[in-house]
Amino acid sequence: MSPSATSVGIVTPQRATFTEPLALQSGASLPGFDLVYETYGSLNAERSNAILICHALNASHHVAGIYEGESESEGWWDNMVGPGKPIDTGRFFVLGVNNLGSCFGSTGPASIDPATDKPWGSDFPIVTVEDWVDAQARLADRLGIERFAAVMGGSLGGMQALAWAIRYPQRIARALVIAAAPNLSAQNIAFNEVARAAIMTDPEFHAGKFYDHNVKPVRGLRVARMIGHITYISDEQMAERFGRQLRDGLNFSFAPEFEIESYLRYQGEKFAEYYDANT
Q1: pTM (whole model) above 0.85
Q2: Mean pLDDT of all residues in the chain?
Q3: Are residues 177 and 188 both part of a single domain?
């Protein structure tokens, strides 16, 4: 797959290592950590044209462009970031960061705990949106960015943009908050608890130590993702997109017969292939 004229082209992830411990909202502390990131465009002489794009739950630092030799590797927001696109890399220096605790390269549960020389697993400290933002601020310091022209993101990424506006108001000119809220509703919390229970009660979860058993709790991950997707789409959107459409008539079986059932199963199976249940 060749990059188009409006693509940032072939990109390569970078890694920043921090040896100073990071104090977390929980009261715990994370020793030295790595952040994987990508950049697109050029930082101007004043270092005033930087935009930070924060990712949501299952995304990563790979916001735009493609990886050399990998087909179908477009970044998750490639339609938005690039020359002449809404986030024009001819004008802006764009930064995408993989958050702490993720499973796409930055320090997380699959990383080695220096105290045990084994993967952290479920012993990895709980990290919050505020912790992510504090780590991002350290990376900005490393890159010499005192103030972002904008911090933006959707869903969980939008929550990070809000946190930047609250924690570092002097360091951002604008916060673009898309499809996000400052906190979760009781219903959101309830759905999250059911999704978490689906993973933790999977026999292959092993209290988060499934790395030691060379297995993955894929059944729990599938159900958790299916639950998540129900919350991502409103009832009105779901009715408009799927309605009560059948895939191939009514066969009176437990196989997916409605289009919405097929959609949810597809999303669950795809997610379980690559996501780390401890993330």
Answers
A1: yes
A2: 95
A3: no
